[in-house]
Amino acid sequence: MLMTDERVVFGNAFHGVFQIALNGKLSTAARSALGRMGLHIDRQPLSFYPLSVWRPSLDIIVRDLFPNLPLEEAYRLLGQKMVLDVSETVLGRGALALGRALGPRRLLMRMNHNFRNIDNYVQMQLTELAPTRYEVFINETLGVPSYYQGLLEAALGSSGAREPHVQRVRTDGTSCTYRVEWLS
């Protein structure tokens, strides 16, 4: 039973990450480690997973996929990989087409809604600084702001933004503010 204050990631997010984006890409050791946590990627996902399972699963993934990179860079690449690999599926291609139709500005405006479909705790606030420059505040980055930086970079690129650039400007605990911009 889901407690109202329990932070969870919804099963559709696990499906997208483990059964689509990372399908066949994790080592046997990583799959075993995830299984010991109760994440059996070859089974139907549960309705939700507690944050206490989601966060360590990301550590297992980055260490498996990017063992020779510093963790910060590995998390950024993982964030990009999530967007790009999911966009290779039928559903992802539809989302990619919608993102291109919306364009980078409107895509950013919808991202809080997208985050709310993934979990029950991440909230994003958007402040327009100029037509192609925004501040993006994310209330909870789980201590890995580079993961969300990679998500934003790949989402903007997929929406047709020319030369998207995402820079962290402030970190406060586990929240982060990013400066997002692209060429018009």
Question: Gist?
Answer:
The protein is of the alpha+beta class and 184 residues long. Helices cover 50% and strands 21% of the residues.
Strand coverage percent:
15-25%
Provide the spatial order of strands within the biggest beta sheet: 3-4-6-5
Question: Ranges with pLDDT <50 over ≥5 residues?
Answer: none
Along the chain, the helix and strand elements come as EHHEHHHEEHEE
Question: How many strands?
Answer: 6
Helix content: 40-55%
Task: Kindly report the average pLDDT value.
Answer: 90
Radius of gyration: 16 Å
How many strands, which pairing sense, and closed or not: the largest β-sheet?
A: 4 strands, antiparallel
Secondary structural class: alpha+beta
Distance between the termini: 47 Å
Shape descriptor reads: globular
**H/I helix tally:** 6
